[in-house]
Amino acid sequence: MCIRDRYEGRLVAFLPLAVRKSLRTKIAEPIGTGEPSYLGLLLDPDYPAAVERMAEAIRTENVFRLLRIEDLWSGDDATNDLLERLAGKGFSVRRVYRNPCPYIRLPCSYEQYIKNTKSAKSRQTLLRKERRLHKKHAVDVEFYSGEEITTDIIARAASIQQQSWMKERGVAALGRVFYRKLLLAMAQGGLACVWLMTIDNADAAFVFALVAHRRLYYAWTAFDLQYTSSLSIGQFLTSWTIRRACRDGMEAYDFIHGDAQYKRFWSTDYHSVSRVVAGRTLWGRCLAAAHSVPWRLARVQSLRLLVHRLRRILGKLNRRAADS
Description:
single chain, alpha+beta, 324 residues
């Protein structure tokens, strides 16, 4: 859907939707949903009234009866505004909290960030770990951005991911052709940067980040399991990427989904991501309620752990079947 300025005809609001018919109902989802993407309404900030016009168009043109959004960022003011306006027009809007998203407030120098956020003891520990790593090994960090990122660079990152814990859990995605093409396209569009860490001239760890609107998004990372946790190579590489973000004047360093311990260590603040469903008419409201139930059950930790365990078991069985 798109809204144009009434006088100049300029595009001022855009909501890319995939609409399908299921259960006798038109169900809409943001195009690209499937991987966390913070995808929602794109709005020209000079035309906030376009949100009301879009909400009214959705109602009068019967664009959908049910809207599903898997990843609604708490900072997405335009999409949140649209949902509030839809609620005022008879839609039942249900939200289920999904994940915290830690981030670092910038800009500042790396030295200032470390001094303001870490105790003297933590700073000394970081320096001691870095010195110990350099003493035991020849360590180098390669940086690539934009068109410098080639298929060979992506293949090196994919190889590291295959040697990490991600393979065991069946989420080593960079080995798939789709993701390699996606990462290359983002790099060629000037939206990506990569850090590759080598230890004794062997690839050991990587970070693939996205950069847009002076925010750095910590998208993919992994390290080879042959390097023990005592070396703290993940912590070392993350500190290197933060240095770069500070040097480049980024306003924020976003760890995206998840509340892993290493993200809590570095972050200074949080936003959140929720699942949202909005339904219209009695049948649409019933479907909205039905969608929200499994999302709420997924918040129960014991059930979530059970599902993850079953997925790992099924993944192992599928890999063994493929190898045999």
